[in-house]
Structure formats: structure tokens, C-alpha cells
Design brief:
Blueprint: H1 2-23, E1 40-46, H2 53-69, E2 73-74, E3 77-85, H3 90-103, E4 108-110, H4 115-128, E5 132-134, E6 148-150, H5 160-171, E7 175-181, H6 184-199, E8 203-210, H7 218-223, E9 231-236, H8 239-251, E10 259-263, H9 271-276, E11 284-287, H10 297-310, H11 318-333, H12 341-347, E12 352-354, E13 357-361, E14 367-379, E15 382-394
Parallel strand pairs: 1-3, 1-4, 4-5, 5-6, 7-8, 7-9, 9-10, 10-11
Antiparallel strand pairs: 2-3, 11-14, 12-13, 13-14, 14-15
Helix pairs in contact: 2-11, 3-4, 5-6, 11-12
Length: 405
């Protein structure tokens, strides 16, 4: 009896222990944070109508081109581009930026391609924390805030001494006439071009300024001292104004007496070349965009595919292609979690591989890249850019000089 009682007591003890263990609650497991599944919303801020529309539309087309190559989604999330026609003044640019951020709730902002609006938007976008990719900025007064990056920073001030020396030594240029806009980017460009010429020992004998939208450049051209020998005409003109100037320079016979050489003259990009025809022949242009004959299979593929889809060579639009590459790389780096604005802003500043090499970003968020000296030639009746010379690893000063603020 005693032996059986001990056995039963042992069994009872085991049963009580099991019940006690079962009654002890299991600590809850921490739930994994899910990656948001909704669309990634990208705000595109640019001049979709008016004189610079060809540039903004080229950027937008190329960005869409890259996203379509990704199947319309990045890191498993669909991508929605929300465009805003930003107009041409500070107030309209800021209003459209606020609409994209506050009403459309975009996860990232791209643009504008107008420097005065970049300057006017800077404080607002900086305070919003929204990651911001600028395809370019033409004014040295603008340096990106910590949540932004400039894919192409003021090519007016890049490769300046080298360009002046080339014109003096290789082309025998001794004197120069400047013509350009009076607004901030135009003033920066004229100043940079003057510095380029002075670095090569070229004397600036005349400088003409104007506001955008000049219907007739005849009065300006007749004032130019084009009878001077070894002369270059340069400065800051772009868009429809640059097209009209070059057409009239051809009509007035200016090109028979002087070399035309412009930094970032957007008239020699995209639709501008088709409009200019023989008026573009022989024009020199230094730019941070590669000519179509740059030896790169990836660039050749992009140029051919873009031309087939949109009917024009993607010269200025190439900036949109690079912006698209930055965008895709950054979103993949955060595994699609674009709601983490701080992580995404950090990711857009990482080096990115492009058809013309790796673009890096300095501590100021400005690109360090190659500048191309190009010449326009008419081949088979069609004007196109050809490559003359390259200047690698070019950037603007970092930190920003006090004189540029």
C-alpha cells in the first residue's frame, strides 16, 4: 500500500507541475513592421508649358522611361508620377511645391529646372524633410539642403579655366563678346564665361544683357563688334531665345566672322537642334551632358529607344535618365520604405553608375562629374552634337563660397 501511495503521489506531482506550466502566459512576440504596400508618389515640379517646356518634358519623359524599364514599380511597389506645371516665377513655383507636398502627399520631389524657383522653394522643402532631387541648378546661389541632391550642378562654373585655355590655345581666340539674360542664372553664367575667357588670356570687349522673350535680336547683333579678329561670342542664352539668336546670327552673317560658343545652351539640345538646322552648324558647347556619339553601349541603347519612343534625341533629357537611376537606386536601398524620409534622403546621395561613368556627390550634395566640350555639326541634313574633349572629376566649390550666397 505504501509503495503504491508513493507512486500515485509522484504522478500527482507531475500533473500539478504540468498544469502550473500551462497556466504561465507566453510573452507576446513583437510584430514585424510591414513595408507599406501603396504606390510610391513622386512629385515632378517643372515648366511643362512655355519656353522651357521642351526641357522639362524631356526630363519627365526620361524619368518615366527608367520607371517603365523597372516594370512600373520599384522594390515591389507601384510608382506614380504626379506632375505640376510650375510656371515661371517664385510664387507659382512655391505654390506648386506646397501642393505636391501637402495635398498630394508625395514621398519625394523632383525638380524644378528653373533656378529662381529652386531658390524660392529651398527653405520650404528643407523644413518639410521631403527627399528632393534637382535635375540641375543654374545659379550658384543655390546649394541643396541636407535632404536634397543636385544631379547636375551649375555647369556654367565647371571646367572654366580649361575651356578658356582651349579656346585660346586650340582655336586662336583673343577677344570675346558676351550676351545673356539679366536674371540670376544668366548673371552667373556671364560671370563664369568671363572668368573662363580671362583664364585663357581672352579679352572681353563687349557685354550685352537682355530679359527673356526677345522677339528680335537684330538690334543686339548690329551692336556687336563682329569685325574684330579672332573673336568668340558667348554668354547665357537658352530656350526659345537661344534658338532665335542663333538663327539670326546665321542670317546676319555673324558666324562667318566669329565663333559661337555657349555653356549649357539648351537650344542645341532636343527639339532645338531640329529647329535650328544649319544655324547650329559649328557652334561650340560645353556641357555636363554627353553627345550622342559618346562611346557607351548603354547610352546608345537609351538614345535609340528614347528617339523611337519620343521622336527626338535625348540630349537634355539625359539628365532625367540619370535622375531616374538615382531614384531607382535610392528606393531599392531602403527596400521600398520611402516613408522613412531620412533614410531615403541619405540614399539619394550615394554614388550612382551612369552610361558615362560614376557620378559622386560632395558633402554639399552637388554632383562631381565629367564636362564635355561638344561641337554641333550638320550630318546628312541633320544637326547633331559631336564630342571634342572631356574634363573629368569636375565640381563646384564645397563649402559654398560666401560670395556665392
Amino acid at each position: 500500500m505504501r509503495k503504491h501511495l508513493v507512486s500515485w503521489l509522484a504522478v500527482l506531482g507531475l500533473l500539478l507541475a504540468a498544469c502550473s506550466t500551462a497556466a504561465t502566459p507566453t510573452p507576446p512576440q513583437a510584430a514585424a513592421t510591414p513595408t507599406p504596400a501603396g504606390p510610391i508618389k513622386i512629385g515632378f515640379h517643372g515648366q511643362l508649358t512655355g519656353g522651357f517646356a521642351v526641357n522639362a518634358k524631356g526630363l519627365l519623359n526620361a524619368i518615366n522611361f527608367v520607371i517603365e524599364e523597372e516594370g512600373g514599380q520599384i522594390a515591389g511597389r507601384p510608382v506614380k508620377i504626379i506632375p505640376a506645371d510650375a510656371g515661371y516665377d517664385i510664387d507659382s513655383g512655391l505654390t506648386k511645391a506646397k501642393r505636391l507636398v501637402e495635398l498630394d502627399k508625395v514621398n519625394l520631389m523632383i525638380g524644378p529646372n528653373l533656378s529662381v524657383q529652386s531658390i524660392g522653394m529651398k527653405d520650404y522643402i528643407a523644413s518639410s524633410g521631403i527627399p528632393w532631387i534637382l535635375p540641375e541648378t543654374g545659379s550658384v546661389k543655390f546649394y541643396p539642403p541636407p535632404n536634397a541632391v543636385t544631379a547636375y550642378a551649375s555647369s556654367f562654373h565647371q571646367a572654366v579655366p580649361e575651356i578658356g585655355k582651349y579656346l585660346a590655345q586650340e582655336r586662336g581666340i583673343k577677344k570675346a563678346i558676351l550676351i545673356g539674360f539679366e536674371h540670376p542664372a544668366g548673371a552667373d553664367a556671364r560671370r563664369a564665361v568671363r572668368q573662363a575667357f580671362e583664364a585663357g588670356g581672352i579679352e572681353v570687349i563687349q557685354e550685352l544683357t537682355l530679359t527673356p522673350g526677345v522677339p528680335d535680336f537684330g538690334p543686339y547683333i548690329t551692336k556687336m563688334k563682329v569685325d574684330e579678329p579672332n573673336l568668340v561670342i558667348s554668354g547665357a542664352l537658352w530656350g526659345a531665345d537661344a534658338i532665335r539668336f542663333m538663327q539670326q546670327a546665321e542670317e546676319f552673317g555673324v558666324k562667318k566672322k566669329a565663333l559661337l560658343a555657349f555653356p549649357a545652351a539648351f537650344a542645341v539640345d532636343d527639339g532645338g537642334l531640329a529647329a535650328l538646322g544649319k544655324a547650329a552648324d559649328g557652334v561650340l558647347n560645353w556641357f555636363d551632358l554627353p553627345p550622342p556619339d559618346y562611346p557607351s553601349p548603354e547610352l546608345e541603347r537609351f538614345v535609340d529607344a528614347y528617339k523611337l519612343k519620343y521622336g527626338t534625341i535625348p540630349m537634355y533629357a539625359y539628365r532625367g535618365y540619370v535622375v531616374g537611376k538615382i531614384l531607382v537606386q535610392a528606393i531599392k536601398a531602403v527596400n521600398g520604405n520611402v516613408e522613412d524620409s531620412a533614410a531615403l534622403a541619405k540614399a539619394i546621395r550615394q554614388p550612382v553608375t551612369t552610361p558615362t561613368g560614376t557620378i559622386k556627390f560632395d558633402d554639399c550634395g552637388n554632383a562631381v562629374l565629367t564636362i564635355f566640350l561638344r561641337q554641333i555639326k550638320v550630318v546628312g541634313g541633320q544637326a547633331q552634337s559631336t564630342r571634342l574633349k572631356e574634363f573629368p572629376n569636375i565640381s563646384i566649390p564645397c563649402p559654398q563660397p560666401d560670395a556665392w550666397k
